[in-house]
Design brief:
CATH topology of chain B: MetI-like fold
Strand content of chain A: 15-25%
Number of domains of chain B: 1
Helix content of chain A: 25-40%
CATH superfamily of the largest domain in chain A: P-loop containing nucleotide triphosphate hydrolases
Helix content of chain B: over 70%
Largest interface: A-B, 30 and 23 residues
Number of strands of chain B: 0
Structural class of chain B: mainly alpha
Oligomer: heterodimer
Radius of gyration of chain B: 22 Å
Distance between the termini of chain B: 60 Å
Shape of chain B: elongated
């Protein structure tokens, strides 16, 4: 049996520890329907992880999510939050302890942003000062200036409203969050930004999250584990993203994750996860013999000219290595320069866009720490990523 | 009836030229304004009481029908019949039961306002965004909390629109309340329907009252719906 620490600490940011979540043969059959919308769903979400429910429309993913806070009643089976059946809990009480974010956000148009965020703390009877402090803290957390708290939802942009929706769900620090296509109505650029922001938040908050999406790329990006549902509300596969991409359980999953699943796998790894090639770093004026020795011991066939701080200046031409000393005759600029935190898919895209085989990899100070090559990327596609 | 009109004829016109020529006489109006004060306040009382009672009943019915949607159709039918009954007929139907006086007039005016008010409250509830209700329930608001904290405030624009229509039409209908033995500007108007100055003042006051009530409700709505003004 799973356990959870729901002990409350004092202060506005009372932090509840995440709770585990377990579906046990959870089934939902609507009255009058011949088949269940969700059929015997069994899966366990460890405390503090994001479980993405993904699948085509009509696969029951939203239905499955809405059973957790009893927005829909379970027909058969059970769902346990922190080891406790949701069936045993009062609906309103349960929902006040489960964060709820929906695609249309559903902010109350007649309440200010602060009042919206304060909804659940108010229902829980927090005193005014504690609520005000918590609201301020959350506005800061989602990167909105404090004076925006006095505005009404209609005065905010779509992205800002979505952030407020997340803040409102986090207000009473629920151990479990339900998110139904939370970024679905946002344009692609802002969606990516919101996803990244949310992942940063989650790295700190470690909530147990059920995240519904129909977008496999979003699922791969957001999920610690992904549950792929197929028509009829049947679980096709439940696995971490890398495993899902490497070993799709059946043709449906294989088809759903897409023909480019090898490339998608690159999105799961960062440049720092790869054994980079040693860069043949050469400074102008150093003896050519030394430079040639470095070149011989590196997998990279060209020498990289750097300044005194190891910042890249460009790839040297053969002529630069003909005399006594290295001259600053460049064959090409050092672009594209790759950063350690870039995901491999972006790095590959950069190399392809510049039509080159090699890219210098920089650390946070802009110093060259190695070289990434197309060959290394090809190896990364072939091997299952570590960790996961 | 004959007794009623005999009583109305009793008011005599003073012998000035303008008056005897049946014109619009500022002097007469100024001299006789005080005779409209009581009818005016009677009119205000009839209107406000009727709209208040009508709203209380219509709102109660709307709350009842809000979670039991099947009730909407029968309520609309019944209040619709009340709405189409000519109010004069209602006065005379009620006279044997409730006698002459305010009660009879108010019952008829209330019956007339129910449909307008009921339909607007229901329309207001229907216009509450579904996602706000879903989010509210999902955060653990009980059905009662959802009603009073979310649905009702968001239904205010339609509810207030209903009140405005009900108030202005009731001002007009209350001008017939004198037929039921209640006072009001109607009594003053029909006291000398052929004298232009009288018709102008009595009618004008009724129009003024309707406009004033309309503006007051509008101002009230403006004050209690700050979020509608804040939209960028």
């Amino acid at each position: 049996m799973t356990t959870a620490n729901t002990a409350q600490t004092e202060g506005p940011s009372a932090s509840h520890e995440a709770a585990s979540l377990e579906f046990r043969e959870a089934t939902k059959q609507y009255p009058g329907a011949d088949r269940p919308a969700v059929d015997g769903l069994t899966l366990e979400v460890p405390a503090g992880e994001i479980c993405v429910l993904v699948g085509p429309s009509g696969c029951g993913k939203t239905t499955a999510m809405r059973m957790v806070n009893r927005m829909l009643d379970i027909t058969r089976g059970d769902i346990l939050v922190a080891g406790r059946s949701v069936r045993d809990r009062d609906e309103a009480e349960l929902r006040r302890h489960v964060g709820y974010v929906i695609q249309q956000v559903g902010l109350f148009p007649h309440r200010t942003i602060s009042e919206n965020i304060a909804t659940v703390p108010k229902l829980l009877g927090w005193d005014k000062r504690r609520i005000a402090a918590r609201v301020e803290e959350l506005l800061d957390l989602i990167g909105l200036p404090a004076d925006m708290g006095r505005r009404y939802p209609a005065q905010l942009s779509g992205g800002q409203r979505q952030r407020v929706g997340v803040a409102r769900a986090l207000a009473a620090d629920p151990p479990v969050m339900l998110m139904d296509e939370p970024f679905g109505a946002i344009d692609p650029i802002n969606r990516e930004r919101l996803q990244n922001e949310f992942l940063r938040l989650q790295a700190e908050l470690r909530k147990t999250i059920v995240f519904v999406t129909h977008d496999i790329d979003e699922a791969i990006k957001m999920g610690d584990r992904i549950a792929v549902l197929q028509q009829g509300g049947v679980l096709a596969q439940y696995a971490p993203p890398a495993e899902l991409l490497m070993f799709p359980a059946n043709p449906f999953v294989e088809d759903f994750v897409g023909a480019d699943r090898a490339l998608k796998r690159l999105a799961l790894q960062r440049v720092r996860d790869v054994d980079l090639w040693t860069a043949p770093l050469v400074r102008a004026g150093e003896p050519v013999s030394e430079a040639r020795a470095k070149l011989a011991s590196s997998e990279v066939p060209y020498a990289l000219l750097v300044d005194d701080d190891d910042r890249p200046l460009g790839w040297l031409s053969d002529r630069a290595l003909t005399g006594e000393r290295v001259s600053a005759e460049l064959m090409s600029t050092p672009e594209p320069m790759v950063e350690l935190d870039d995901v491999l898919r972006d790095a590959l895209s950069d190399l392809l866009a510049h039509q080159v085989q090699y890219g210098p990899v920089l650390d946070h100070q802009g110093r060259v720490v190695g070289v990434l090559s197309i060959e290394l990327l090809a190896d990364a596609i072939a091997e299952p990523p570590e960790g996961e | 009836m004959s007794e009623l009109f005999a009583q109305l004829q009793r008011r005599d016109r003073s012998g000035e030229d303008c008056v005897s020529e049946n014109g619009i006489c500022p002097d007469w109006i100024v001299d006789n304004l005080d005779r409209y004060v009581d009818p005016f306040w009677d009119h205000v009382y009839l209107t406000l009481t009727s709209v208040a009672i009508g709203f209380a009943i219509a709102f109660g019915l709307a709350l009842l029908a809000h979670r039991r949607r099947w009730l909407v159709a029968p309520i609309v039918q019944v209040t619709g019949i009340l709405y189409t009954l000519p109010s004069v007929a209602v006065f005379f139907l009620l006279l044997p039961l409730t006698g002459r006086g305010n009660t009879t007039a108010i019952i008829a005016l209330v019956a007339y306002s129910l449909l307008i008010l009921f339909r607007n409250v229901i329309a207001g509830f229907d216009n509450v965004p579904a996602e706000s209700k879903d989010a509210g329930r999902g955060m653990g608001l009980t059905e009662n909390q959802l009603l009073w904290r979310v649905e009702l405030p968001l239904a205010l624009p339609e509810i207030m629109a209903g009140l405005r229509i009900a108030a202005t039409t009731t001002v007009g209908l209350a001008a017939l309340a004198f037929l039921a033995g209640a006072g009001g500007l109607g009594a003053a108007l029909f006291a000398d329907i052929n004298f232009r100055s009288n018709v102008l003042v009595a009618g004008g006051l009724a129009v003024l009252l309707a406009v004033a009530l309309d503006l007051m409700i509008l101002a009230f709505q403006w004050a209690i719906t700050p979020w509608l003004r804040a939209a960028t």
